[in-house]
Amino acid sequence: MAKNFYYKDGISLNKYCKEHGLNYNNIRKKITNKTSQKEIEEIINSYIKVSPKSSKPSYKIDGLSLRQYALVHNYIYPTLRTYAQEIRKKYPDKSDNEIALLAVKHYEENHAFKELWFYKGERLVDYCKRNNLTYKTIFSYLYCMDIKDRNNIPDWAIKLAIKKYNIKIRKDCFKKLKLCQKEEEFKKITNLLNIDWDSVKLVMSFNFDCLKAIYFVWYFGKEKDSLIKLDKKRIKNVYNCLKKVDLLEINFLLGYYYTGIYDTRQLIYNKLFLSVRKIVINLINTYEIKYNYDYHEELKAEADMLIFDFINRTNSRYLGQIISYMNAYIKGRLKAKIIRDLPNHKQYSLNKIAYQDSNKEIIDTLVVKPIIDISYFSIDMINIIKSLDIIEQKYIILRFKKLFEDEEIASLLDISLVQVLEIREKALEKLRQDKNIKLFKKLY
Predict the structure, then answer these.
(1) Per the count of CB atoms within 10 A, which of 149, 200, 214, 382 is most buried?
(2) Domains defined along the chain, listed by start
(3) pLDDT digits over 35-69, tens only?
(4) Which residues is 64 bridged to in the sheet?
(5) More confident residue, 47 or 243
(6) Is 8 helix (H, G, I), strand (E, B) or coil?
(7) Which residues contact 114 (CB under 8 A, 6 or more apart)?
(8) Given a cut of 90, is residue 239 above it in pLDDT?
(9) Which helix (H) or strand (E) holds 125?
């Protein structure tokens, strides 16, 4: 049956639907195989009454379609279209033009500022697509950097963001490795880690299971032709080095531990001991902690526990990365402990009450309940915080009272890191404009 066989008001049904914003395909399905012209007309008329709008509305702004408008202004069309669809659900009675204008306004307020980022004349989002990078992750790293000109992102910032991105990908891969059961799943992850699968199979021939064989190649293999490989000679050398294992660097000691060849945790601890003690001393001096033998010993014991915790967390094969991560991880955890133990430290108190007994505070309550508990802030501070949206209130409490990092807040609130950064920016901007608040300005 020809496409324009059906007619309405003297013109083809297809053309009539386009002119009146109707869905031609939906109508045609209803009248297919109908032979009576009267019956066909009744079906068409009833459909028009029930469904006056097309499922694909024609959004236009200044004579341009939404797609053309997005192209002219360097906006991401799918995102803009999604906003329009969401607004349509909320305001079904508004016209297509009104919906389009609201969608653009929402996009410009909540999303467009991200698209002002360019690297070597190319939009950051396009650069990420071209290089198989996750835009949201790269953007979140760049957003935290001190970049003055977003229209011209410097090389150092891109390199640092990609470095962090690769570390994140590596961490995710090793998490997934522990859950793998089939050989195909292991092989897929080794490809992401640039591990030579033939080398893994070679190690497995020496009675290693797949997971430990992958660790073996990862820590003891050498990079060749963009792949991490090893041969029988290299495997033999790994076992020969056990005779002088105490002289090896930390990255190789981790290899022995993760492959189950030798428990090297005590050797790693001995190599990190002095560095960690320096971290403890520096923190004590930085926070001007008065001499207290019991508390100092408590910090040292905590640091020792963190060393062994760190050993089970790291998965880098490069010595420099391992040391950097160790310093950041242990320093961060000890710093958080000291802050919790010294609630009146001036740098972290937002008001006179500043902090309550942490044992009485339940983080789940903070995340779920849309209220400000007076136990967290003074009355004056509460009046200021109330000017924020609920989600912004939660962020301020979690970040500046509970001292959670942005990544942890994203996990607690079940949103992305990018969304957390957006909430942070909006909340602090509102607080900066409040004449009564001065303590927040000290944080920035």
Answers:
(1) 214
(2) 7-50 (no CATH), 60-116 (no CATH), 118-170 (no CATH), 180-247 (no CATH), 265-341 (no CATH), 358-443 (1.10.10)
(3) 677 777 777 777 766 655 444 567 778 778 888 88
(4) 61
(5) 243
(6) strand
(7) 139, 418
(8) yes
(9) helix 124-130
